[in-house]
Structure formats: structure tokens, C-alpha cells
Amino acid sequence: MQPFSLALLLGYVLLAVLLLSLNLRAQWHWSVKAGAVVLTTAFYFVSWWGLRESEGWPARADPLAEFELLAYDVQQPDKRRDSPGAIYLWVRPPHAVEGTPRAHRLAYSEALHQAVLEAGERLSRGRRQRGERRQASPDRTEARGSALLFRDMILPTLPDKRGE
């Protein structure tokens, strides 16, 4: 178990013990005590669900306005399984030497699928890919994430030392 998860678990246990001791000793009405138990239990589930994203689950938010594409995974829609499909991108800020990669989950669309496959083909040939969010169409018919544009990343060139 990771130290952060262990600390979180101990915090939950402490909160439960405090709530139990208050409920046993306090002269509150039973409805106040029951409400505190229900509220605390709901807090456990909400906080656990919120922490899932901090442990490597993909963010459902759009990527940065500009990013470097590191990897991708496309899951096409499947009507038999009632799956709408998704496109997962692993990105980091452009030209970041030590930028921490971030995973994003985007809604599946044919246009985004095609754009990601083309970028992936160039990526497999060793050409780093830069992604940019384009302005959404005025009628907003595009799915979130489908307004991404990929192109070859232009790397900065260093000055030639022989000329000194």
C-alpha cells in the first residue's frame, strides 16, 4: 500500500472513531446522529471517487491548448456491449525536458480517431507530434476533443560551435 493511501485510510479511521465517540456520549437527537453518520459515509465515497484521478486514471478534461503526443489508445464504439468508445491520449507540455505526462480520456469521434491514427503513424516513424486544440465550430456540433490538430514538432536548433 502506498504511503498516501495508508495516510488516507488512517484519516478515515480517525474520523469514524471521533464520530462514534461523539454519537455515544452526546445527548443529541437521534436524527442528528444518523445524519452525521450518513454524511460521513457519503464523504468517504465521494473523496475516494475524487482521488481515483490522482492515482493514474485518465482525466476527462481536454488536454492543454498545446501539447506533445507521447502515446494513444483508441477504443472504438461497440453496440453489442453498449460502449460509446473512447480515445486515450498520453501527453505532456511541448518542449518539456522533464514534464510529467498526463493521461486524457476523450469522447470517441471518427474525425479524432483519424487524426490520432495519422499522428500515431508519424510518431512511429520517429517524428515527434505536437497537438493543438482548434477553436470549436460555431454550431458546436463537434464532439469534445475532435477539434484537435496534430503536426510534426519543430525542434529548436542549437548554434554551431565550429563557427566560433
Provide tags for this entry.
3 helices, 164 residues, five-stranded antiparallel sheet, 37% helix, 2 domains, elongated, alpha+beta, 5 strands
Topology:
Blueprint: H1 3-25, H2 30-51, E1 66-75, E2 86-92, E3 102-107, H3 110-124, E4 129-133, E5 148-152
Helix pairs in contact: 1-2
**Which range best describes the helical content: under 10%, 10-25%, 25-40%, 40-55%, 55-70% or over 70%?**
25-40%
Shape: elongated
SSE order, as H and E? HHEEEHEE
Mean pLDDT across every amino acid position: 83
Residues in β-strands, percent? 15-25%
Strand order of the largest sheet: 3-2-1-4-5
Report the total helices.
3
Radius of gyration, in angstroms, nearest whole number: 24 Å
Number of domains: 2
Give start-end ranges of low-pLDDT stretches: 140-145
The computed structural class is alpha+beta
Task: Give the termini separation.
Answer: 56 Å
Count of strand segments: 5
Largest sheet: 5 strands, antiparallel
